[in-house]
Amino acid sequence: MQTSRSLAVTAPLLVALAAANVQVGHQSQQWENKVDDEGRNVQSLQIQAPSMTEEDQYGYNMPDQYRCDSCKVVMHHLTEALKRRQPKNRRLQEWEYQDIYDETCKSGLAGYGVALVDGQNVLSGPAIKRDNLKPGMGAIQMGGETWEKRLGEICRKIVYDKIGEGELYEHFRGKGVLSPDLCFSETRDCQVGPKAPASVEAVKKTTKPKKEKNQANAKIDTSVSRSGSPDIDISTFIGKLAKEHGVEKSEYTRKRSFYQWEQLLLQASKRISEQTLKQAGQVVDV
Length: 286
Description:
This protein has three domains: 3-44, no CATH class; 54-206, no CATH class; 215-285, no CATH class. 51% of the residues lie in helices and 10% in strands. The chain contains twelve helices and seven strands. Helix 3 packs across helix 4 and helix 4 runs antiparallel to helix 5. Residues 1-20 and 196-228 have low confidence and may be disordered.
């Protein structure tokens, strides 16, 4: 008997899909053998494309349902970039690993989008491997520049706000990789979204609220915590300072001229003085 292959995705359609930022994955190992109405053996493959929501198509922020995988993607690409640039005989200087972070977040996260797996849209791309997929599942990926920008924003938040440049590099130096476990223990990206782990929901329900301290103790504790905190490095200090001043950490770490650094330090010193005086006044008022 003659054996042939039939697939609804034709060559012209592939060209159109490529122009629309749609990628069709290689699924030759998953063809199914069937017998058609004329008794011939044929090989067929059913491919389903994801249905894009408005949140998927528009907006600058990464939808919550993809944040866990997004974090893991960022960890993978930051690890690969650090491995390529890490000398064998010395540590990277602070400016060196900051440049690696910036380059990766800006242009090292291309090739991602959304695919349909088990009836749900999931993040898809080079660093995401899924096992036990049914024939044709996840074969079509809807991507584009929007997803690269969203991942870039996730990357910058992880590096400069959630973990910190120095702390991230120390993780890499200690283990040789940036483990996906950081997405659970540090960034908490894998504990948010519409499908939070059951253990997290159980903790929320069983945890009893702590008794609130009185206002006087709360104010006094605030002043004590600043002087009694453990020793930290300059990167951690800058991160905490930026958070207290209500700005992104990158505002205090990006490159500047010598004069601009002087002006920034003067402004930061003024803010610290005003905050210290304000807190001192609150404690006295008690």
